[in-house]
Amino acid sequence: MVYIDIGNTFVKIASHTGDMTGNVLDSGQSADMDEWYVHLRARHGKLDDIITILNSEVLAAMPVLACSVVPSVRTRLEQALPDRIYFIDRSMIPAALLDYETPDTLGMDRFIACYGAWDRSGRNTDVVVVDAGTATTLDLMSADGVFRGGVIAPGLQVMEYGFARLAPALPEVPRTIPSHWPPKSTTQALKWGITGSYLGLIRAHLTHYQHEYPKLKLWITGGDAQILTQMRGLSMHYHPNLVFEGLRAWKQTYIDART
Question: Which of 81, 99, 125, 192 could cross-link 196 (Cys pair, CB 3.0–4.6 Å)?
C-alpha cells in the first residue's frame, strides 16, 4: 500500500516498512521514525513528478490510499490512477466519531492526523494534535476516538509572509526567541513578535484543552513542528507522519476488517 497526504502546499508519498514485503526502494528515498519511507515531498506544481513516482517500478503494483484538502489535486490523481487510488472522505467516517457542527467543511487531514495520534497512543487516551503547516491546526480527539473539533490558526510562514509583504522595510529574522525580555533591538523585537507570538498563540490554545482534558497527550507534526520544541514546560511527542499513521490505522480498522 502507498499512502498520500495532500496538504495545502505539499504532497507527500510514503510507504510503511510493514507493507513493503521485500520491495527495494530507490536510494533517493529516506526513512522517518524507522517505519515510514517517504518517497517524495513536492509542491502541487510538481504533479507530473508525483505521478511518475507512483507509476515507478517499485510502486506501480501497489494500491494508493490518500487524504486530500485540495480538490484539484485529488481530481488530477484520480484521472491519472483511475483504478488504483482511493480517497478517504467524510462519507466514510461514522457520524458517531464526529462531534463537529459542520462536517462537510472539515479538512480530512485534521481528522486523520488525530486518528493516527489516537492510535499511536493506545486508543484509550485524549490526544491533541498540533499540525504546524501553512495553516496551524490544534485538534482534539477524545479517548473514545471521537473528533471533538479544534482551532485553525495562521502558520508561521503565513505570519512571516504578512510582514514581508506589508512591511517590506523590516528585516528577515531567524525563527528563534531571544533569551531575555524585553527585546532591546529591532531583530529581537521581530523574533519575539513573530516566532514568540506564534508559540504564544499555540500555548494559549493548549491551555484551554488542558483545562478540560488534563491527562491529554500532545502530538506535534507538520513542516514547522520543530519550532514548537522551543515551548518549554510541555510534554510533547513529535511525529512527522501522523497523517500517514492515521491512514494506515484507518485502513486496518475500517477496510482490512471488512475484506
Answer: 192
